[in-house]
Amino acid sequence: MSDSIIALLLNGTWETIVMTFVSGFFGFLIGLPTGVLLFLTRKNQILDQPVLNRTLSVIVNVFRSIPFIILIVWMIPFTRAIVGTSIGVSAALVPLSIGAAPFIARLVENSLLGLPSGLIEAARALGATPLQIVYKVLLPEALPSLINAASITLITLVGYSAMGGAVGAGGLGQVGYQYGYIGYDAVTMNSVLALLVILVFLIQFIGDRLSKHFDHR
Amino acid sequence: MIELKNVTKTFHQKDRIVSALDDVSLKVPPGKIFGVIGTSGAGKSTLIRCVNLLERPTSGEIIVDGKALMQLSNAELATERRQIGMIFQHFNLLSSRTVFDNVAFPLELVGTPKAAIKTRVLELLQLVGLAEKANDYPASLSGGQKQRVAIARTLANNPKVLLCDEATSALDPATTRSILNLLKDINRRLNITVLLITHQMEVVKSICDEVAVISHGKLIEQGSVGEIFADPKHELTKEFIASSLHLEIPDVYQEKLQKADNGSLNPLLKLEMTGKSVNEPVISEVSRLFDTNFKIVSAQMDQAGDVNFGVMLIELSGKRENYDAAIQYFISKHIKTEIIGYV
């Protein structure tokens, strides 16, 4: 393998890591509050807002049903307006974050649904306000399961970013696509695959360790 | 201290309406321990949740420490709830926090300074006897210890009232007793009014001053524990009292028990003392008056309020011709007497 290919692979790995983690971060920034709101507005929950809940739920479902590759293309005008370009890593971050957010929202909602309902009741009985319930009860108690949700999300984002590579997002996806698919270079393509597998394993491993560390149940 | 006036709660389930509470009124005087007893599904859980409005009644009034809770805004209600402690059957401790941080939780909610939290939490853990567990997580505690942490947590705000939602139902008998003793101790020392719900007559008998019986969302009987035990009106109340006294005939007796007397056997009597029974040393009186002897086979006697009650299994011997008169004497003293058989 030539030095230039190795440099290409290293650069691709770095770009994939950046895309995965930065869009994961922005995805959580949108998805976490949405998921909490989805949970709180459910029937018989502390906010109990059926109309708001259904509206949010519909929006989440709409975005979740758009295939990611279509979402990238569909979002190009919006992406241009925000980052000024539609190709490269920073352009990919926009659709990746938007694509991950509704997925994260559902995962967060599910994590919160898994908590014993008595915890909220006890906090209310102790005089906690809804905001205090969220950041002192729900989020800390759901932390191990939220970390698992983050691992799942990041792994999904590794896949999404690779898909984005086919339409100019950069990263390992683009290297694999250009050199493997278009250039018939089996060694480079398999190296890309191996790097992606290692990245996914690492994310899962670290996620599991962190989740276990914070789990005192 | 706590007053419920004509409280009604209905739930909509699909297309039918379920009435969980039906015109419930009760009054808990300051410093007293008031028990509500009922079978599962009778509405007792809904009742206690209505007191701090975890469940909002459909109609009626809830007054705690002179404040009508139904009229308060959400923010005012959150403040008022800090005066109303509550403990639960399943403890509801935060698993992500240590024992110390669980007790600190209500203090954090009101923005207590760190140093003050530390003093108060250690003081509370001392009170419930768990000072050495401060840095453990709830998962490593036994059920009784978890309930002690929950009690410490709810006392942190110095509540005037304590609500206990089946607080001992998930605990074994010995642990139940120690938790009940702790509650009684708290009630006396800190002068906290307690309202508890339970399905165990044990609980009512051992710590309550007053009791109400709930069935199908209605309070069917209420009064001081002494009164209710002395003279239960309702069939369900009688059942609850009977369930707290269980007496079985020992196997040895069961084997040789005969239905009829062949002329040489001794009758085996079951005596039931209720609050109506005359408070006199009846057994030794009968023994003396009728020249008879008693062998106590098994007995369970108890005291609730100022009433002595219980059941006793005795073997009667001595002057055979006086047996009937002896039994009649018991009956005249309002002791329910039954001949189980002859041994």
UniProtKB/TrEMBL annotation, chain A:
One cellular component term (GO) for this entry is: plasma membrane
**The organism's place on the tree of life at top rank:** Bacteria
The keyword Transmembrane is annotated on this UniProt entry? yes
Transmembrane parts of this sequence = 17-40, 52-76, 82-105, 146-167, 187-207
Q: How does the UniProt record describe the way this protein sits in the membrane?
A: Multi-pass membrane protein
Pfam families xref list: BPD_transp_1 (PF00528)
InterPro entries assigned to the protein according to its UniProt record, in alphabetical order: AA_ABC_Transporter_Permease (IPR051322), MetI-like (IPR000515), MetI-like_sf (IPR035906)
Membrane among keywords: yes
Keywords, A to Z?
Amino-acid transport, Cell membrane, Membrane, Transmembrane, Transmembrane helix, Transport
Where would you find this protein in the cell? Cell membrane
Residues forming the ABC transmembrane type-1 domain are 13-205
Tell me one GO biological process term: D-methionine transmembrane transport
- Family named by the database record: Belongs to the binding-protein-dependent transport system permease family. CysTW subfamily.
Q: Which NCBIfam families match?
A: PRK10782.1
Purpose: Part of the binding-protein-dependent transport system for D-methionine and the toxic methionine analog alpha-methyl-methionine. Probably responsible for the translocation of the substrate across the membrane.
Specify the protein name: D-methionine transport system permease protein MetI
The scientific name of the source species is Flavobacterium panici
Q: Gene encoding it? A: metI
Automatic annotation (TrEMBL), chain B:
Q: Which Gene3D superfamilies match?
A: 3.30.70.260, P-loop containing nucleotide triphosphate hydrolases
Q: Which GO terms describe its molecular function?
A: ABC-type D-methionine transporter activity; ATP binding; ATP hydrolysis activity
- What gene does the UniProt entry assign to this protein? metN
Q: Which domain of life is it from?
A: Bacteria
Pfam families assigned: ABC_tran (PF00005), NIL (PF09383)
Q: Which PANTHER family match?
A: AMINO ACID IMPORT ATP-BINDING PROTEIN (PTHR43166), METHIONINE IMPORT ATP-BINDING PROTEIN METN (PTHR43166:SF30)
Any one GO CC term of this protein is:
Gram-negative-bacterium-type cell wall
Q: Where is the ABC transporter domain?
A: 2-241
Keywords of the record:
Amino-acid transport, ATP-binding, Cell inner membrane, Cell membrane, Hydrolase, Membrane, Nucleotide-binding, Translocase, Transport
- Provide the protein name: Methionine import ATP-binding protein MetN
Which EC number(s) are documented for this chain?
Answer: 3.6.3.-
